[in-house]
Amino acid sequence: MSRLQVVSGKGGTGKTTVAAALALALATEGKRTLLVEVEGRQGIAQLFETEALPYEERKIAVAPGGGEVYALAIDAERALLDYLQMFYKLGAAGRALKKLGAIDFATTVAPGVRDVLLTGKACEAVRRKDREGRFVYDHVVMDAPPTGRVTRFLNVNDEVAGLARMGPIHHQAQAVMRVIKSPQTAVHLVTLLEEMPVQETADGIAELRAAELPVGDVFVNMVRPHLLDEDAVRAAAGDHREGVARALAAAGVAHPEELVGPLLGQAAEHAQRVGLEREQREVLAKQQVPTYELPLLGEGVDLAGLYHLAKELRRNLGVSA
């Protein structure tokens, strides 16, 4: 599988949850993954029930088979100081610039600089090797910005490389884009079986393809189980008050006529939802992208639920446990 796994999705679809579960799923049989957060929301720390992540790579979980999950919340200001030290040897001078407010200006006002630093730090982790020449991380999973912004976010270094025709900035931007546009990278999109998220997913796939960015998989999150089979779904659309009342009476239910209306109402609502979900699956199928479904966790996503989703991902993606 690709070494840089970028996870995006419309707000509310659970992209951070899927990114965390994917990091756990990939960290199997002794493998090591790095889960990267770029939006400063500390969502990863909340999911793994740990303290807020500092700007350092910290082990936060052990996966089945002894794999390890590390996490990093990238801070743009610290990343810029790293960049200045790496390419210009401005350690003390960089810290002085921070005191003067120049670092804050560069990361909040200058267009694109923040995204350059965030993507650059993630790609550095992808390329990093130990003294024996082995990659430090088998996989890097990035919890990326939402679908509407992810193409520009990932493509920002192309723009920078075009603006800076030479020098370390140009070379760094090119190096980042070589990773992002290579087979090493896959950009996954998270959606729900609802019209707006599915349409945004389809638009996102089109934008990624137009920018020649590598489209990965679509993860349909929070899929609710079908409580009725196809025959029951079709029957729920009709008027079966008398039949339902007789069935309830035969089962020994007292005052069955009082339950008929609510039961038929719920059945009709379920049948309508099944029909709408079927339509959204058809839209996703037209995108010609591998699609995997993850179940709705009735009790919400806690640490146990995260491991359950990771197990589902391993099964769907064919990752050895």
Structure at a glance:
By secondary structure, the protein is α/β, with parallel strands linked by helices.
Q: Overview of this structure, please?
A:
Pfam families: ArsA_ATPase (PF02374). One of its GO terms (molecular function) is ATP hydrolysis activity. It is built from 13 helices and eight strands. An eight-stranded mixed sheet has the order 3-4-2-5-1-6-7-8, with helices on both faces. Helix 9 links the parallel strand 6 and strand 7. It is elongated and about 80 Å long. The two termini are 15 Å apart.
List descriptors.
eight-stranded mixed β-sheet; 53% helix; elongated; alpha/beta; 2 domains; 13 helices; Rossmann fold; 8 strands; 321 residues
Instruction: Just give the CATH class of the largest domain.
Output: Alpha Beta
Q: Looking at the chains present, what oligomeric state does this protein adopt? A: single chain
Tally of individual helices = 13
What Rg do the Cα atoms give?
24 Å
Widest sheet, order of strands: 3-4-2-5-1-6-7-8
Strand percent estimate: 15-25%
Mean pLDDT: 83
Weakly predicted, low-confidence segments:
88-94, 96-103
Quick one: how many beta strands?
8
What level of helicity do the residues show?
A: 40-55%
Distance between the termini: 15 Å
Q: Indicate the overall shape.
A: elongated
